[in-house]
Amino acid sequence: MLSVAIIGATGVVGQEFIVALDKHPWFEVSAIAASERSAGKRYIDALRDPNTGILKWHQHREVPDYAKDMVVKGVNDIISDAKKYDLIFTAVETDDARAIEPRLAEHVPVISTAAAFRYEKDVPILIPGVNDAHADLLNYQRKARGWKGFIAPLPNCTTTGLAITLKPILDSFGIKRVIMTSLQAVSGAGRSPGVAALDIFDNIIPFIPKEEEKVQIETVKILGRLMDSYIQDASIKVSCTCTRVPVIDGHTESVFVESVNECMPEDVKNAMLRYSRNVSIKDLPSAPRDYIYVHDDPSRPQPRLDRDMNDGMTTVVGRIRKDTAFDNGVKYVLLSHNEKMGSAKGAVLLAEMLKVKDLL
Amino acid sequence: MLSVAIIGATGVVGQEFIVALDKHPWFEVSAIAASERSAGKRYIDALRDPNTGILKWHQHREVPDYAKDMVVKGVNDIISDAKKYDLIFTAVETDDARAIEPRLAEHVPVISTAAAFRYEKDVPILIPGVNDAHADLLNYQRKARGWKGFIAPLPNCTTTGLAITLKPILDSFGIKRVIMTSLQAVSGAGRSPGVAALDIFDNIIPFIPKEEEKVQIETVKILGRLMDSYIQDASIKVSCTCTRVPVIDGHTESVFVESVNECMPEDVKNAMLRYSRNVSIKDLPSAPRDYIYVHDDPSRPQPRLDRDMNDGMTTVVGRIRKDTAFDNGVKYVLLSHNEKMGSAKGAVLLAEMLKVKDLL
Amino acid sequence: MLSVAIIGATGVVGQEFIVALDKHPWFEVSAIAASERSAGKRYIDALRDPNTGILKWHQHREVPDYAKDMVVKGVNDIISDAKKYDLIFTAVETDDARAIEPRLAEHVPVISTAAAFRYEKDVPILIPGVNDAHADLLNYQRKARGWKGFIAPLPNCTTTGLAITLKPILDSFGIKRVIMTSLQAVSGAGRSPGVAALDIFDNIIPFIPKEEEKVQIETVKILGRLMDSYIQDASIKVSCTCTRVPVIDGHTESVFVESVNECMPEDVKNAMLRYSRNVSIKDLPSAPRDYIYVHDDPSRPQPRLDRDMNDGMTTVVGRIRKDTAFDNGVKYVLLSHNEKMGSAKGAVLLAEMLKVKDLL
Amino acid sequence: MLSVAIIGATGVVGQEFIVALDKHPWFEVSAIAASERSAGKRYIDALRDPNTGILKWHQHREVPDYAKDMVVKGVNDIISDAKKYDLIFTAVETDDARAIEPRLAEHVPVISTAAAFRYEKDVPILIPGVNDAHADLLNYQRKARGWKGFIAPLPNCTTTGLAITLKPILDSFGIKRVIMTSLQAVSGAGRSPGVAALDIFDNIIPFIPKEEEKVQIETVKILGRLMDSYIQDASIKVSCTCTRVPVIDGHTESVFVESVNECMPEDVKNAMLRYSRNVSIKDLPSAPRDYIYVHDDPSRPQPRLDRDMNDGMTTVVGRIRKDTAFDNGVKYVLLSHNEKMGSAKGAVLLAEMLKVKDLL
């Protein structure tokens, strides 16, 4: 068993790590850390609102037994003891990540849900099953920075489903252009305080600060080519509009692709399914039965009906049609669970992939 | 005063006609008709559920006084007396429209919210302010069909805002391609029964039967060129994905445009505002103060905040940005009130425009 | 194995029966029936919208394999072959129930989710665990009507949780008066068409036709005393206001009880838990681990967080406090899953109880 | 014109004051104050999120012109200059109110939306039209505390509609007991951050900290009798359960009343309407056309349809029925706009009443 620590364990994403690592066959949670306000408390107590006694636990299943009585550490405790762990998962805000993660990575691998280091040259943005080969850049990063560990960030949760579904299209048909409009769930904005009910009830907010830039940059990096010391972006033009919609969980994306070669909807479907069947990570503990699932029912995917498929680890696709704006093109709708494959459980899958590659 | 009749007056769109024509300076409602079940009742009684006594009235303001005591006629009464009216507004399902409207149009102009005749060669799809010149095709239609009247259908409510915002871009920069994803309100699906709460709560339905085809066909027809006996489609490629979202009123559309000539966001904004200031119909009784309104606040337009601007007759635009997928392109978000400018009140505006053109 | 038939199998409640009986240890579904429109089709095909191909399946899990290929019968087929079954579950509208159920009950026991026979003197309204003894009235009914079977209706789904939570209070403290306001989920209104999104978004509908009368009458009957040929109502005064709220599943009820004897909140909690631990039906296959669960967290129960506890078979209680309007009294909030314990799965639990009592 | 200041002008309630006082015939806004972070900025700039440029303005109509360019003061500026104003409206949190309001009241009348002083003996809780006579206690307060001004707090927004509808019942029939369950809108919880979408979507939260106690205490005080130096509570027993529901604006309350004398629903309706017609404040500038409106349609009041009646100043009642739990009793449903009559606009109405009574 590898010994892992979770930083930011009381937040929403941290809670997902607590759940995703329950009874994990390879990883054992040895320490959990949060802000100074929580440090020293039992985990279950740290989750409780001090004024009202209300438990601030946002998962469907109850708090796993293993975590309830763990004493929450301060972040500095983890930093000073970093060598004791084989791997650290971080679930903190970008600014905190920028300060904390390098100090941890000096000693130990760090898998991060924050954006802080995603855009640095020697940092790959890994989606297990899509660009596993980019993991080699972590060795370069290690050497270049003189670290024992490394920082391996997840992509933005809106990028995940897009990159996963573009990959088989890129491999089979080539891609010139991607135009995407997202309909993102409120859970993507977290809970501290997250989206106010008053802002999103009976409403759409057609703007999520910095989101579009992230998706555009990350997609071409993830689909790019590993060079010795960096990733060369894929030469795909990507344009997004990201919106927030009144849906609890699950990001829906409307995607239009101009391909290099002719691609008929049936061929795209088959390419996706073939890719899904053969995906590199299919035997890992957290991998879903279906990496991509394709609906023929034109009314799917729907977030409420489809987001929990295979515990939120499947990217669900539907409405694959010939595009009418491009000579060669296809359009489709995808659904990706932003709090599962797009977040902590996706990070655990990444850890599994890195372990198999002997990077942990 | 012109004498008008409303067919389908008890339905949602019919109710909007009742409201939109209240105290109208040019049009007087002389007759209202509905299904046989309602015929013979006072309007206010026809609106009442016979079992529960609940009033099935779906407008924000109360039933206008002028309509309350009008006795609802059967549709056949209107058909047999069609000559008594100067104009008939229809708000019926497509199949009924196909049967009823030609029989009315033999005698009197018909403005229709149904799709039944939109795609016939001698039928223009008119948006007042966008393609007024196409109204001349109504004279051709009249002659060709040997009618005293004509059928003038509105476009689909999702087409309206798209065509309105594309028009100034087309005129100033030329358009090659349009890619649009809609986030459509549930009121667009009507109320008999309309969208079930169980289907759309906490959910997106990424499919609205036939909607995308309608928008794609109508947009190029509306932006096309009037020939002697038909409209030649604009040579623009249009591709849409239409979704239903949990919003009560107001269709949001995420639009990506590849233009012929370079178009910077500021130039597009100015083109829209200039067009809005000079729009042909600006002095008509139902015209809004702003035909197009452009927000600089990046979080707008939002349906709950913006849909009621100028009583729902303004197309509200925001997030005009340079597109990153095309060499020359722009992307933006628009909001159009599907039950106002996109429906009955838009039909009344159309009637006003036709009157000014001496077509009534 | 007992051979059972389901009538109304394509509707929402019928679908729940299909799910609740999957792999049941005692009951085997031998036939499913629906309207003539569906008869002759495979079940999976009967669920499909003939126009759009969209599957009208409203359960979280997929259609069970055993049901997919069963050929749907017409209701008359079941009636004419009624003797072939050991038990029939009906999930049809009240008027249909009134016509169909007696013809079935001539030959075979019928468990019904409809209200048609609930209020007849020789018909008990059974909640397994609350008034099992009332089942003896079924033998009287049998004889009195000259039937081989009987009709055993479930209560209204709003009555279920109320009666379950009142029972231990009644037994321990006596009850004079009950005042209840319900906040009912939209799924309680079914799906054909059910509650329209336009009516309930951002809204409360403070009226559900006939619901309050049902709850008031049923509660005192269920908590009443079995006499030879009828149930004598409990002498409790009940007053309800029933409202519809924008929640998908799970009825919340705010309950105020005036008790005969003093009842402190802690005592009420203990009475509920003791009752739950010892409930008669606790070893039946469909019985939940907790018959009643009591939260100490004052923010619970919440429908989204608590409705699925033990697959929706647990009545979840919280906020037990001393009432301030009565000298002796208590108030609390309960949550009951209207589509599980309050519907088909509760009916299966009832069937299990009747089997143990040798009534099947 | 009286010169007024608004403290807490950038918050949600403060914004309502800004709107409610626009073009007011008697009051002129001379100063607006907010936290130090906003002080020194133009009002329109203080409303803008410094990071995103998004305007944090939560009213349906735009920011009134008179306020846009006013420079926001710090609270201490108002305190040190308090004598310059004839009246101060405060819209701050309870703790801040406790600190600030007495320092203002030394010099000038203060109308407060906070709970800080509501429960002190020499402080009346005033609802204009219900207990105007209690305003005399302000003179006692003035003298007892040696202040030139006084503190006059509004009740909790959930109390307002309850007290208004109980008043005519109390006057005509006497009241023994009131049992109320509220279904409160999310706007009642404010916006900083207010209710998180993730907590209330598809959900009910059956607990609002301290709310029930407030309503219970305030109701009997408001309906009580003015003695020389205090209010003697009405001898009515009140019990509430307060819940939060997914509704934007408008508190719905399900009320059960045990009366002293027999009260038939028709008589209660007539008592309410008579009271409404003759209400003391009916000629004040902010008074609604209907103080109480009674629906006969059993499906009303509904928050989305009825909350904006008379700009949210009318208490809308429906479903008046004989109660079945009490020998003499009535039950009904009420709707009160928590952000209008229950908040700033109600405070302005109170100011008008106090002016007419020469207390300003």
Q: What are the SSEs and their pairings?
A:
The structure is a homotetramer of 360-residue chains.
Chain A: E1 2-7, H1 12-20, E2 27-34, H2 43-46, H3 65-68, E3 73-74, H4 75-80, E4 87-90, H5 94-105, E5 110-112, H6 136-145, E6 151-153, H7 157-173, E7 175-184, H8 197-200, H9 211-222, E8 225-226, E9 231-232, E10 237-244, E11 251-259, H10 265-277, E12 292-294, H11 303-306, E13 315-322, E14 329-336, H12 344-356
Parallel strand pairs in A: 1-2, 1-4, 2-3, 4-5, 5-6, 7-10, 12-13
Antiparallel strand pairs in A: 7-11, 8-9, 11-14, 13-14
Helix pairs in contact in A: 1-12, 7-9, 7-10
Characterization of the model:
The structure is a homotetramer of 360-residue chains. In chain A, helix 11 (303-306) links the parallel strand 12 and strand 13. In chain A, the strands form 3 sheets. In chain A, strands 3-2-1-4-5-6 form a 6-stranded parallel sheet, sandwiched between helices. The first copy, chain A, has a 6-stranded mixed sheet with strand order 10-7-11-14-13-12, covered by helices on one side. A two-stranded antiparallel ribbon of chain A has the order 8-9. The first copy, chain A, has 12 helices and 14 strands. The mean pLDDT of chain A is 96. The first copy, chain A, is globular and about 60 Å long. With 360 residues, chain A is α/β, with parallel strands linked by helices. Chain A has helices at residues 12-20, 43-46, 65-68, 75-80, 94-105, 136-145, 157-173, 197-200, 211-222, 265-277, 303-306, 344-356, and strands at residues 2-7, 27-34, 73-74, 87-90, 110-112, 151-153, 175-184, 225-226, 231-232, 237-244, 251-259, 292-294, 315-322, 329-336. Chains A and B meet through strand 7, strand 10, strand 11, helix 11 and strand 14 of A and strand 7, strand 10, strand 11, helix 11 and strand 14 of B.
